[in-house]
Write a structure and sequence with these properties.
This protein has six helices and no strands. The protein starts with 5 loop residues before the first helix and ends with a helix.
Length: about 160
């Protein structure tokens, strides 16, 4: 098994993550309003919905951006709508970069810790698997006993 420097892994993960989110934000800033002016765009979001979204981002955008970075499906959409809402970069970048740093830092720290303790983790899984096997066999025995008893009654 290879070894990686957790700090290098962090930066190789975090920088592209923040960079692509900012790229999406910039594209949405530049082209998003025009798209939502088309029939398809108006079908996806009515102008009134777009206004409410903009108001939301300007009132609560910083907190929403921070929280969204921990939600897998939502995290990709938030920079898009921040760009469409024309949220200033100074209100987008700190929560986006900070929450992403916390998320990827925690994941990499957990992975690094797991890698350093892999033998203990495997031993723990072996113990858990033995316990689960015992529980499974006991449940199987109970089901078979029930099956056998209920078949005998019907004869």
């Amino acid at each position: 098994m290879g070894r990686g420097d957790p700090v290098l892994v962090f930066f190789c993960t975090w920088v592209p993550n923040v960079g692509t989110a900012l790229l999406v934000y910039g594209l949405a800033w530049r082209y998003g309003r025009a798209f939502f002016g088309t029939p398809v765009g108006r079908w996806l979001l009515h102008p009134r919905q777009l206004e409410r979204l903009e108001r939301f981002y300007h009132e609560r955008g910083t907190a929403a951006i921070f929280a969204s970075r921990f939600l897998p499906a939502v995290r990709a959409l938030v920079p898009v709508f921040a760009g469409i809402a024309r949220l200033p970069p100074r209100r987008l970048i700190p929560p986006l970069a900070g929450a992403s740093a916390l998320w990827y830092g925690a994941l990499i720290a957990a992975g690094s810790l797991a890698g350093q303790n892999w033998e203990a983790i495997l031993a723990g899984f072996e113990r858990i698997n033995r316990v689960l096997l015992g529980i499974g066999l006991a449940l199987l025995a109970l089901v078979l006993y029930w099956w056998w008893r209920t078949r005998r009654r019907h004869r």
